[in-house]
Predict the structure.
Amino acid sequence: MMMTDATRRDFLKIAVLAPLMPALMAACRRADTRRVVNFYNWSNYIGKDTLPEFTRRAGVSVRYDLFADEEEMFAKIRAGARGYDLVVIGDYLIPRFKSLNLIDAVPSGTLKNMGNLAPRFRRPSYDPDETTIPYLWGTTGIAYNRRKLAKQPSSWWDLWDPKYKDRISMLDNVRDCVAVAMQLLRIPQTTRDPEDFRKVRELLLRQKPLVRQYSSSSYLNSLVAGEIDLAMTWSGDLFQAARDNPDLDYVLPKEGTYMWVDCLAMLRGSRHREDTLRLIDYLLEPEVAGSISNSVRYATPNAKAFPLVEKALRRDPRVYPTPQTMGQLQLHHILDPEQSEMWNQVWADVKVS
């Protein structure tokens, strides 16, 4: 059966909102329309009942808008789309938002549920002054079809194996694709050496004839349908797809991989500051955070929510890696503007070649 649920990175916004809208609109009609929070988030990245329940309890409507690509979201907000109060942003983007004064610090001292976060997610390297609040986290790995492959993939190099020609999908994402190429070539993400970027470009171009599609959304339908056998993927998205095809599985490559953290950020100039903080605090409640994790199949950074996550999910090392694996995971290096331009140029060259 083809997977019809939208994913964290899906472009089909209307399809995503359809299951949410009846309950959400009904709850919003009951709310005082003078109180509202404008929330900008990934597709299918919240529980079906999360926002309607907040509206019911707090009497605050939530206008929920979706984006399909982080870089496009960043460009939109940078260009002046300031009508939003709350936005979900990836860890690597936080320094860029801060440097451009696009977000205000969330006054964590006013959040009664701030202490629910696990210590490892407090004052992280990408946001040491806790301007933002961790929301969900996951890993980047390889999705594969157990029925189609003779053996489980174990390395990023499997995505370069000619025997899988036209059966491979790669994320349409500069940070993940360039980072993996650098990892395979043992090039540090901190590099500024043009020769390093030439090697990365060459490796990705060598792979390109094998790749059926570069996609951050529709590839999951292709996996479910058996049209591709191997794919670079984000953890939770694969587990959503596996609901429709139990032959799908997920592995973290032996070379190591990346974990990422998506965070709640309050945009500068928010006109609904108090209710935005009220929504953030609500999302930090253990029952709410646990329900979101159960729904979207991504890991929660909320320590008090963890016991409320479905037992099968919290015991699954593909979702919540073992301590040994956690020690091997890396966060993406925070790029400065010059480095970002070099990464983006490599990716542009690969895509247009």
DSSP finds 14 helices and ten strands in the chain. The chain has two domains: 13-137+260-319, 138-258+328-352.
